[in-house]
Amino acid sequence: MTKKEKSNEKKEKVKAPASVTVAGRPVRLRGRTFVGVVVSDKMTKTVTVEWERRLYVPKYERYFIRKSRVKAHNPEEVGAKLGDKVRIQESRPLSKTKKFVVTEIIA
């Protein structure tokens, strides 16, 4: 298989529709956007997404790698699975711990 053939075989991106609904109510997406990996999909319509960030510590003049984890709504149209790289976007609070929505599967 040549490089050209490999580049043509890119995975399709799956995007959420323009209007996401939760419990029959529309959710407007606004605020911050992150790209992370799904580390848990055992909850109904919810996934846990984790990503790394670099934190500079002036005392040691070094960067430390920290991880952030949030729970995000997983619409049926997107259907992210364990290990998928996804883009999440902030929305209104959907529950006590859910404030993000999975908008697309990247890889």
SSE arrangement:
Layout: H1 3-8, E1 14-15, E2 20-22, E3 25-27, E4 33-43, E5 46-57, E6 62-73, E7 85-90, E8 98-105
For this entry, give a set of tags.
two-stranded antiparallel ribbon; 107 residues; OB fold (Dihydrolipoamide Acetyltransferase, E2P); single chain; mainly beta; five-stranded mixed beta barrel
Describe the protein.
The protein has a single domain, classed as Beta Barrel (OB fold (Dihydrolipoamide Acetyltransferase, E2P)). Helix content is 6%, strand content 53%. The strands form 2 sheets. Strands 4-5-6-8-7 form a 5-stranded mixed beta barrel. It has a two-stranded antiparallel ribbon with strand order 2-3. The protein starts with a helix and ends with a strand. It is mainly β and 107 residues long. The model has no long low-confidence stretch (mean pLDDT 87). The protein has 1 helix and 8 strands.
**Annotation, overall tally of beta strands:** 8
Beta fraction: over 45%
Cα(first) to Cα(last) distance is 21 Å
Spatial shape: globular
Provide the spatial order of strands within the biggest beta sheet.
Answer: 4-5-6-8-7
Calculate Rg over CA atoms: 16 Å
- Biggest sheet layout: 5 strands, mixed, barrel
| Secondary-structure element pattern, one letter each | HEEEEEEEE
Give the number of helices.
Answer: 1
Helical content (DSSP H or I, runs of 4+): under 10%
CATH topology: OB fold (Dihydrolipoamide Acetyltransferase, E2P)
Q: What is the CATH level 1 assignment?
A: Mainly Beta
Secondary-structure arrangement, i.e. CATH architecture: Beta Barrel
Tally of domains: 1
Provide the low-confidence segments as ranges: none
Helical/strand content category: mainly beta
Classify the oligomer: single chain
Average of pLDDT: 87
